[in-house]
Amino acid sequence: MNKFYGTGVAMVTPFDNNGQVDYPALKNLIDHLIGGGVEYLVSLGTTGESATLSKEEKKKIWAYTAEVNNGRVGLVAGIASNNTADVLEQIKAFDNAGYDAILSASPHYNKPNQQGIYYHYKAIAEASPLPILLYNVPSRTGSNVSAETTVRLAHDFKNIIGTKEASGNFDQLNQIMRDKPAGFMMISGDDPITFPMIAMGAVGVISVVGNALPRQFSDMVRLCLKGDFAGAQQAHYNLIEFTRLMFADGSPGGVKTALKQLGICGDTLRMPLFPVNDDIAAKIVAETKRIVG
């Protein structure tokens, strides 16, 4: 699955001033990302504000994204829920034409134990016609997919091909890398630590920052993957402040501010999300100008 080596971008969903999906802006974003050299796109992950979208909106966005991409880069759909039956229903209804995999976050809010997480993903693996990428993001879900559970799933289901890891727990990451089967991919789900994660064996990132800076971020990732860590280190340092600002007052509010500055799309969010405060916005604009010009 080399198409998932490198930089994937968890795309924002552009909205117009009335809060409706802005499809021309979505096309701008897709073309911006592909032109910036990213390896694949992720449609309707957390960064895409999927929790605020109706089933019909999701269906239309997925179809439109596949149409605009037109096979130019890899394409992943984010499909998740804290109700296993709902995930299975979504997968059954999903038109996977043009898509290469499904990214599914572990169940949020209801905090299942490790057996519950294992059998949740078991059901998804058995139902999905596409390969599955696990997504562990304890800061959002309220529970952790342990290294043992990740490795167990990786060994038991050949169509579970990797994990987007955003735990930030390097002891856990070490255990996954040591015990996973050959070919199972660990993908960074946390922009600030992508550099060290690749150094320990991750194959790339699914990025928020890459929405605004696809060229700069994907160049850094490719340098890492080639083993040019000296070159990658300088690129990493150059992006530290921008990356910090992306999450300083909520995501994807930060990256939408940068995208508005770049003329890619507006910065409208759907409630309960709200734009970043004026101080952070001014700093984001300044950093965007510094990096992009």
TrEMBL record:
Alphabetized UniProt keyword annotations: Amino-acid biosynthesis, Cytoplasm, Diaminopimelate biosynthesis, Lyase, Lysine biosynthesis, Schiff base
Signal sequence extent: none
Xref: SUPFAM superfamilies: Aldolase (SSF51569)
One Gene Ontology term, aspect cellular component: cytosol
Catalysed reaction, written as an equation: L-aspartate 4-semialdehyde + pyruvate = (2S,4S)-4-hydroxy-2,3,4,5-tetrahydrodipicolinate + H2O + H(+)
Record GO terms (molecular function): 4-hydroxy-tetrahydrodipicolinate synthase activity
Sites where the protein binds pyruvate: 47, 206
A Pfam family it matches: DHDPS
Residues carrying the site annotation Part of a proton relay during catalysis: 46, 109
Function according to Swiss-Prot or TrEMBL: Catalyzes the condensation of (S)-aspartate-beta-semialdehyde [(S)-ASA] and pyruvate to 4-hydroxy-tetrahydrodipicolinate (HTPA).
Oligomer status and interactors: Homotetramer; dimer of dimers.
Protein name as annotated: 4-hydroxy-tetrahydrodipicolinate synthase
